[in-house]
Amino acid sequence: MKINEKNLYTFANSKPVDKEGFLQFKRDIKFQRRWFVLKGNLLFYFDKKGDKEPLGLLLLEGCTVELTADEDTQQYCFQLVFHGENDRTYYMGAQSQTEMESWMKALTCASYDYMKLMVGELQRQLEEIDSRNKGHSTKNKPAPKAPPRQRQNPFNKPTSSTTAIINPTTEAAKIDPESNEDTDLTFESIHQDIGSPIQENIQRSENSVFVI
């Protein structure tokens, strides 16, 4: 694959970067101090900080980051091991344990394969959370309630939509509307109609003679 060097240099010096700093670097013979810049899955290294043209580039695919011990420099060392037909190993040394761990973590997370695994894992976790939330919402769903019964107050006046209660006695007492008789009744007329028969019965009882 052909790479435009000018575009590559521009990309190497652009901001932002994922990580940068000095590391001891050895490919074949001895360690040399180099300035490293990590951008995505590309690891650039320069002769010194501020240089525009990198000395080299490592594509962080198909490799593993491993701890190693280097007795010559007594540095906090780790190695990049590239697997495949052209196996290569690059040694790097940091100034402290914390710096070494930081670089190892950054380089491990830089590859496309690692990012793909992380995306798959995050997607699986989201699906599990979504499944649990659906199950939880189903369990907590309240049971359907019957509508409340309508209770009427017997002291309220019936409305047009309320069925009137019919009193048989009252209905029986109604006068036929076709009748020509006068339907105006007074208390006196009612008293005479009902009271007269009662008075006659009382008088008959008083005038009766019982024979012993």
TrEMBL record:
SMART domains: PH. It holds the Pfam family PH. Residues 129-168 are annotated as: Disordered. Residues 150-168 have a biased composition (Polar residues). InterPro entries: Boi1/Boi2-like (IPR045188), PH-like_dom_sf (IPR011993), PH_domain (IPR001849). GO terms for cellular component: cytosol; early endosome; recycling endosome; trans-Golgi network. GO terms for biological process: endosome organization; receptor recycling; retrograde transport, endosome to Golgi. SUPFAM superfamilies: PH domain-like. Residues 16-112 form the PH domain. This is CLUMA_CG011927, isoform A. It comes from Clunio marinus. The lineage of its organism: Eukaryota, Metazoa, Ecdysozoa, Arthropoda, Hexapoda.
